[in-house]
Automatic annotation (TrEMBL), chain A:
GO terms for molecular function: monoatomic ion transmembrane transporter activity. GO terms for cellular component: plasma membrane. It holds the Pfam family MrpF_PhaF. It comes from Streptomyces himastatinicus ATCC 53653. The chain crosses the membrane at residues 6-23, 35-53, 59-82, 94-113, 119-137. Keywords: Cell membrane, Membrane, Transmembrane, Transmembrane helix. InterPro entries: MrpF/PhaF-like (IPR007208). Its main location: membrane. It comes from the Bacteria. It is a multi-pass membrane protein. It is found in: Cell membrane. This is Putative membrane protein.
TrEMBL record, chain B:
PANTHER family: NA(+)/H(+) ANTIPORTER SUBUNIT B, NA(+)_H(+) ANTIPORTER SUBUNIT B. This is MnhB subunit of Na+/H+ antiporter superfamily-like protein. Residues 107-226 form the Na+/H+ antiporter MnhB subunit-related protein domain. Keywords: Cell membrane, Membrane, Transmembrane, Transmembrane helix. The chain crosses the membrane at residues 68-86, 107-129, 135-154, 175-196, 208-230. One of its GO terms (cellular component) is plasma membrane. It is found in: Cell membrane. The keyword Transmembrane applies. It is a multi-pass membrane protein.
């Protein structure tokens, strides 16, 4: 196994974790589906980062950068229309454990510089997005209160 | 046409397509081989024009005319949406109730907005040297603006987003692409040819006209998506039938 | 190793696309579609096409869901639908 293959093997872990997530996103209660959608973008980001390193293409982390911004945005859009933002300890734990576990070794491999700053930014965005969208807090007041024409 | 007739028409069409498709597939270079006739030429052309991202070179230099077509498709699609989703005579606009958003979500969306916008602009600006470009970055930038809708409500978004300005931006982006192409004609070369100084390889100013065309697409896509979503939001949030007085109170919380 | 990643991503794409077809409710379909978009973005990246992956992500993760959900909301609010036939579907 070459050194590159090691990083690609790391990318395989979150990728395989997406298989049960696909099951949850296509079956089950609305809350579960939304949590699964939230988790999928986090796992996607975690798969893209080591893959970029494994391919030896640091520019590929831009895909993870865009995902780290748009993933939580998508979740919030669904939450707005479904009227729920279910909390999920799974999402929070995956973010708080998985992101440092993958980003910090990548930072060591990248060495100090612009690439490292970018990796840390992506990691911070992934954690922030997952913590905010996964923190829960029951049903939104909005959905419970308003009669319909809410923006 | 009867259901049977439609089925036959489909089967004949599908069979003809399958035949042509399979024939075409057999003429392709083998998958995963080391020999890429088009790729080698494209990479050579991109490097000779100091464009590090070969895809950007293909999109905005080698096949700039194709991209003009794609840009025009988006332009026409947005125009069609604007016409279809306009407010008609039997529809009236009502002010929606302000939405109540959880403080955490509001805070997060507002904090994310500048980041998302910056990332969108970064993706546009680095189109010629790293993956991305006007289209991808433009969509991200337009999405970033709508974080304001998630942070507050549609009225807050409407206050800071003058749609006429974005409509002008949409048209200006499209026009800028054509004008850049015509500029090449004036410079004594072909339409959309790369006539500008090529700059230093792998810097923000490299690539000649690639930068201008990329920026034009960025402006057009950003504005186009904003206008597109504005029309959808208008219809879904504000515009209702004139006789739609009694709201039944299901909308904020569609159950799946 | 790249081949393994590509095969897993391909399976995810096939699974998500099938699930999107099997779900009948537009909102559920939109959720599966988001997943499909992500799986496609991963596949494109593994196939060394990050530009396409970025396009897919940009369009598929926020703009498409927003447009689908706004359309669903508009269609479900049509007058007359609230009383009888809107509930049956």
């Amino acid at each position: 196994m070459r050194a590159d293959d090691g990083w690609l093997a790391v990318a395989l872990v979150p990728l395989l974790a997406l298989v049960p997530v696909l099951w949850r996103v296509s079956r089950g209660a609305p809350e579960d589906r939304l949590i699964a959608q939230n988790l999928s973008s986090l796992l996607g980001g975690l798969a893209l980062l080591p893959a970029a390193q494994g391919f030896g293409r640091p520019a590929y982390v831009d895909v993870a950068l865009v995902l780290s911004v748009l993933g939580p945005t998508g979740t919030l859009i669904y939450a707005r229309f479904l009227g729920v933002l279910p909390g999920s300890r799974l999402v929070r734990r995956t973010a708080l454990l998985g992101v440092p576990a993958i980003v910090l070794p990548l930072c060591v491999a990248a060495g100090p510089g612009r690439a490292m700053a970018k990796l840390l930014l992506i990691g911070a965005l992934l954690i922030a997005g997952s913590v905010v969208t996964g923190a829960g807090g029951g049903r939104g007041r909005k959905a419970a209160a308003d009669g319909g024409r809410t923006a | 046409m009867t259901a049977r007739g439609r089925l036959w028409l489909f089967l004949v069409g599908a069979a003809a397509f399958a035949m042509v498709f399979v024939t075409a597939c057999f003429s392709l270079p083998p998958f995963g081989s080391v020999h890429h006739p088009y790729g080698e030429r494209a990479v050579r052309a991109a490097l000779s024009h100091h464009t590090a991202n070969v895809i950007a070179s293909v999109n905005f230099d080698l096949r700039a005319l194709d991209t003009l077509g794609e840009e025009t498709i988006l332009f026409a699609a947005v125009l069609g949406t604007v016409v279809l989703l306009r407010q008609t005579a039997d529809e009236q606009r009502t002010r929606p109730e302000p939405a109540v958003v959880r403080p955490r979500v509001r805070w997060f969306a507002l904090a994310m907005l500048p980041f998302a916008m910056l990332i969108g602009l970064y993706v546009i600006a680095h189109g010629q040297i790293s993956p991305g470009g006007g289209f991808q970055g433009g969509v991200v930038t337009a999405t970033a603006l709508h974080l304001l809708y998630l942070a507050a409500d549609y009225r807050a978004l409407e206050r800071v987003r003058p749609v006429p300005l974005y409509e002008i931006g949409d048209a200006a982006g499209e026009a800028a692409y054509v004008v850049t192409g015509l500029g090449a004609l004036l410079a004594g070369s072909a339409f959309l040819a790369n006539v500008l100084p090529l700059g230093t390889f792998a810097t923000l100013s490299s690539g000649g006209t690639v930068i201008l065309l990329n920026a034009a697409v960025g402006i057009e896509v950003t504005s186009g998506i904003v206008v597109l979503l504005a029309r959808f939001l208008d219809q879904a949030v504000e515009i209702g039938h004139a006789d739609d007085g009694n709201d039944h109170g299901n909308d904020g919380k569609e159950r799946v | 190793m790249t081949d393994v990643l590509i095969v897993v991503a391909l399976l995810l794409v096939a699974g998500a696309a099938t699930a999107a077809v099997l779900n009948r409710d537009p909102v559920r379909q939109a959720l599966v579609l988001s997943f499909l978009g992500l799986a496609l973005a991963l596949l494109f990246t593994f196939l060394q096409a990050p530009d396409v992956a970025l396009s897919q992500l940009a369009v598929g993760s926020a703009v498409t869901p927003l447009m689908i959900l706004l359309t669903v909301r508009k269609v479900r609010r049509r007058p007359g639908d609230s009383t009888d036939k809107g509930r049956e579907r």
